[in-house]
Amino acid sequence: MSAQGLPMKVPAPGLPSRVRIHEVGARDGLQNEKETVPTEVKAEFIRRLAVAGLTTIEATSFVHPKWVPQLADAEQLFPLLGDIADVGDVSLPVLVPNERGLDRALALGARSIAVFGSATETFAARNLNRTVDESLAMFEPVVARAKADKVQVRGYLSMCFGDPCEGAVPVARVVRVARALMDLGCDELSLGDTIGVATPGHVTALLTALNEAGVATPAIGVHFHDTYGQALSNTLAALQHGVSTVDASAGGLGGCPYARSATGNLATEDLVWMLDGLGIETGVDLAELTATSVWLAGHLGRPSPSRTVRALTPPSSSASHKE
């Protein structure tokens, strides 16, 4: 928090009293880095995020290493995270694409997983080398086995608002695939604005259509990218609809290796600043989180793109200094 005690807390009516931040920096953020971050640095990053008060931290991905080489060390990383339970009730979800990925995750003790689908055929082909329906068929045994083992399952749905090849994505198409993911048994659905083209009215329309299709708001999370500077305004629209789970990435890291126009995720610090000002509880220490992003920026050799990190960081701080 800034020395002036800002932001001033001014609650707005009709918003959740608490928001759970689903931190994706260690997975969705680092998977898009050109240089591979050392395993020990990733582990320390996740530890620092937990100390800052984040309780859902997506740790890594069990996708085949050749597809996401930056996360090829999942087997080495996950065992290093056992001590995180000492800093609180922290969940460490991991991404799995198929039963092979599930086997790898369960063998290491993962208790929360995510599958990742697409609302568009083009992205499904690029990201999973399958059609949308073939992808859903691939997820079916993954979700069934996870649920049988009492493992929490999240369903990511990419390209919910626009696709760089197909353009605008009809709401009805998104609803069909979202409903199918939930019918498989997913506990939670994350709506991905993968290329950052959503606007608040579009967000509200999609959430309303999902409710009408039987997907309850408490089961929905939102995942916005800030390509056109709309991530916070879209988040506010989702909060006004009753959504209380928001994905964000410490320092604004991220993108998507299979969608070149996907820029960084909504920065966790920017989100916390807004939520603090609205009087919404997150359990996150903004000063600790900002220090964590500055520390990681030093390892990445560049400043954080988060506006809040930049505003709260002394000018003397250097992204090129590695601690």
Automatic annotation (TrEMBL):
Record region (Disordered): 304-323
Extent of Polar residues compositional bias: 314-323
InterPro entries according to UniProt: Aldolase_TIM, HMGL, PYR_CT
GO MF annotation, one: lyase activity
Xref: SUPFAM superfamilies: Aldolase
Limits of the Pyruvate carboxyltransferase domain: 19-290
Gene3D superfamilies with a match to the protein in the record: Aldolase class I
Recorded family membership: Belongs to the HMG-CoA lyase family.
Name this polypeptide is given: Hydroxymethylglutaryl-CoA lyase
Organism annotation: Streptomyces badius
